[in-house]
């Protein structure tokens, strides 16, 4: 996408423009599965500003119930931001959406970043992870509890690009999104 305009699903803003989604029928899936998406480049070698971000999300398909992992401006330094919003608020729909920024100096000089969202339907959790240029996967915090209703039938999966403030438009590139069951090895 050559020119991402202003728009953000965060909190009461709900003026998101560049988020595209599709539904995945997970039915009665009981084993873990992972959504993997690849971000190419890094703001096209521009310094990101004013809440510019792009990445991947899961949720119910609206602007009030989602979990996203994005490459974010982080004051121009770049970072990976995990945002959780339930019913327009934080966990349980209470308070403001929960956003956590993770810094990694290699993010803005990488060729590509893989984002992983490993969903465990039995525990109703999502473990966000990432890797840079095909390297080792790194957890972004611990597993995040999500409502079972987000993942018990059809889960919305997609790409999201946000911008607010005076930064203007910016280009971004995605490579792919995959969804795969996790292999579980029995021990004993």
SSE arrangement:
Elements lengths: L17 E8 L7 E8 L12 E7 L6 E7 L6 E7 L12 E5 L9 E9 L4 E8 L5 E2 L4 E2 L8 E9 L10 E9 L7
Antiparallel strand pairs: 1-11, 2-7, 2-12, 3-4, 3-11, 4-5, 5-6, 7-8, 8-9, 8-10
Described by its quaternary structure, the protein is single chain
- Residue ranges: pLDDT <50 for 5 or more in a row? none
The pLDDT mean sits at: 82
SS element count, helices: 0
- End-to-end Cα distance: 50 Å
Global structural class: mainly beta
Helix content: under 10%
User: What is the makeup of the main sheet?
Assistant: 6 strands, antiparallel
Descriptive notes:
With 188 residues, the protein is mainly beta. It contains no helices and twelve strands. It has a six-stranded antiparallel beta sheet, with no helix packed on it. Strands 2, 7, 8, 9, 10 and 12 form a six-stranded antiparallel beta sheet that branches. A hairpin with a 6-residue loop joins strand 4 and strand 5. It starts with 17 loop residues before the first strand and ends in a 7-residue tail after the last strand. The relative contact order is 0.31. The mean pLDDT is 82.
